[in-house]
Records
---
Amino acid sequence: MKVFVCRKIPAAGLDKITAACEADIWEGDLPPTQDQLAQRVRGVDGIVSLVTDKIDGDIMDTAGKQLKIISQMAVGVDNIDIQAAKARGIKVGNTPGVLTDATADLAFALLLALTRRIVEGVDYVRAGRWKTWGPELLLGPDLRGATLGIIGLGRIGKAVARRAFGFEMRILAHSIDLTPDEAAEVHAQTVDLESLLHESDFVTIHTPYTPETHHLMNRERLQMMKPTGLLINTARGPIVDQKALIEALQNKIIGGAALDVTDPEPIPMNDPLLTMPNVIVVPHIGSASIQTRNRMAEMAAENLIAGLRGEKLPNPVTE
Ligand code: GLV
């Protein structure tokens, strides 16, 4: 069986793939372009994709009718046309669960970095500006007693809530189909999105990216946040209307933002967000712990191999 692996992934998964099938591995540091992808998938039985690879109906058709499985090394699958895969009888697998804690850790790291102004502090020291201890130097708000609003109380949102409980925060949550009992399990209170935005000191996003969540955080919703409110996004860039976010920050509608994901990715170097002291941008590293990435690669290999064999996927998005 022939497969195309869209980037060099950790050996924990790649070794399983190369042992089980004839693997063509994209060696570039940058992902294949759409043309390069189309050339390389011709005739393959399986594809291992990453969040950077757009796997649409055309790519599936170019691969050919023998394509059985698209195995995504990520939990989010918004880069894959799931309906197109279903229509063609192609299975899709992903890597849920294993990256929950790593992503929640990053959301918390960004929250702490923003509130305690870590990046500004590092820049201050590196610029040689640290002359003495300052009674009012780089002050920021406490987490304890503050209200955290979690948009999307799924696996990752709940892991964030558990961390917030440890920090003695008040936790509000908004999710589709979320029951008060389910939220209470992680010490969160369910509210509508408007109340969450009005009442939260910090808002963190953990929904998947779908047509319904496109620009969920638009100008109107950003205006509902407190002027001191901080927005954290470790989900997907286009859930936030980035133009509206820039305006909200420039006009002091909100207090700051920390983004692990942007729209587009990578963020262009001339983007105004990169010059704002109250904004932190990191390069989509939510799942980037050693153990997590190894396990994601293994899970992607397991889904791939099961799909090639016509077996049930251990972690199916579609079957
Ligand atoms: C990463 O962004 C993922 O969806 O796993």
---
Amino acid sequence: MQARENWGSRFGFVMAAAGSAVGLGNIWKFPYVTGENGGGAFLLLYLAFILIFGVSLVMAEMAIGRMTQKNPVGAFKALAGGAWPLVGYLGVATGFIILSFYIVIAGWTVAYMVFMLSGELATTDSSQIANTFTTLIGGSFWPVALAVIFMLATCGVVIGGIGKGIERASRILMPALFVMLILLVIRSVTLPGAQEGLAFYLVPDFSKITGSTLTAAIGQAFFSLSLGMGALITYGSYLSRHERLPGSAFMVVGLDTLVAILAGLMILPAVFAYQLDPGAGPGLTFITLPVVFAQMPAGTIFGFVFFALLFVAALTSAVSLLEVVVAWLVDEKGMSRKSAVLTAALVCIALGLPSALSQGAVDSLVFGGQSFLDWAAQLTDILLPLGGFFTALFVGWVMGPRLVDEISNQGEVPFKLAGLWLFVCRFIAPLGIAWVLIAGFL
Ligand code: PHE
């Protein structure tokens, strides 16, 4: 058997894991879900969930991956057997579902690169922008074609494997995205009328918290951290034995959270400055940003570069989603990497069709007040915390101190918070997640 490929460096791993975490979840989903759920109070809940469950479970997943050097299904099989591998299967299934709608949204960013260059959206008339956007996503050819194009790009990177594909792309592009984001935040918060948006975003109004706010916030925390479906188990499985896990986990969580907070600062003040509706839903980022670019010197270029980087951020996340499925097919089903990639891609495209066509092309794909795509996204808000719930139980009660040894490299790396970490995995995370999920249903 070939030796398992490893990341080239610690920086490479952290960038790849951060690349998985930072994606559409931060820049497309976070601002609109915050807008829909009343602003500041939602932000606070999201941050609380990241701090309470997020950090500990990120570390747990990375450790499971490194310890077993396996995909999520194989990892649970190797460590425990019984019914536990079902948690791995749940992860793989969730991966398919997320990827199926992820490629649709990411496809929109491809169209936006072209729109920026052609000047199609170079206007401050937001109703015109909204029009162009709804026409784009409501078609029946382009939404599908763009999703396929994005899927092909994802396949290209994943076929290249770990070091040459995933790591090399993440190392350069993630820092570039960050710089771009800062520029846009500066533009947005200095717009006349931005204060109202800042207040909406930063001053919590607790009367806005309901059961569904809780589900949305925990779902967002997990989605954004790529947590609860084995993506981090998979990435951890390519880590070499002497990496320091606690530091890497903190870095990834910190970067991801920072990017989400910045994305909120980029979108929400502009939404208020231009009197748009913060509760507009999935189109929010796509309708707000063009107005901001239209008001910037060299906005066309900035706009193009921004959507190109958003494309890349989505790509590095999609790559990690696909990698979960591919690692499972390669490790457990004995497929070659190439045929695993192609099989997974075809299934995802087929699953993605109803999402792609649910934005106006096929009326029957809108039911119960929302589109098929909304339903798919909402389902993952439940599936990911559920995966996290089982992972926490597994880590707390089945692995326990064995995983503490793994995290601390058998005592070589200081892990002062080991006791607290174990307590979180045993009690706080399972009880907390269960409570939030139940409260969301009530
Ligand atoms: N974290 C990614 C984002 O924010 C999405 C993702 C979820 C990636 C789960 C992998 C696993 O866009």
